[in-house]
Amino acid sequence: MKQITAIVPAAGLGKRFGQGGNKPFRMLGNKPLVTWVFEVLESVNEIAEILPVFKKDDMALGCDLLEKFKFSKIKRIAPGGKERQDSVYGALVLIDKETDAVLIHDGVRPLIEKSIIEESIRQLRRVDGVVVGVPLKDTIKKILSFGSQGLTEVLVQKTLDRKSLWAIQTPQVFKYSVLMKAYRKAMDERFYSTDDSAIVEKYGGKVKAIMGSYSNIKITTPEDMDIAELLLKKRAESAS
Fold it and tell me: What is the pLDDT of residue 136?
């Protein structure tokens, strides 16, 4: 892959994170959360450009952050949309058509490892897309919820075989032409998904899964920040 652009969606509302908002700019360790992502992507030789996506209300914060840290592969910022898919599509249409591949990584997954990114890029050669994930540890049950008079009952319908179930993470990397074609069809048909690979799969793309890391957590709640701090401390201790 000669030219790869990395899109970093960081325009979510963060409803489950609680008050304080601006989750990508919250301090993790000694720097804003999203900068951990940018630093790893900067270190990957195959990535030519990093394209962050920020909420319109966060554009000033984003510009200040980029001015302070001076990431060489970030030349511009894409404005976020109503849904995550709108945000990613808004970034996709800005990308040079000569791009070979697009890598998408959540701006709130700060503990991604460089080796996982590089492996996902290597594995793309024979398929349309590559996703990283981890096998589920918990038993998963399909449930049915119903209620009346303000009461909700939850009944188990089926216990799923977890041997065939993975929790999918990011990064996800795709051949640019395949991803762009799938996204255009999805937007035309108003098919929405919170997962980019699901869009490629819907329109016939061949997607491969490779092993990610259980430490590649997504920061969703304040408790996740505490977990990330502990994982960073453990990583630093292992490196020393």
Answer: 96
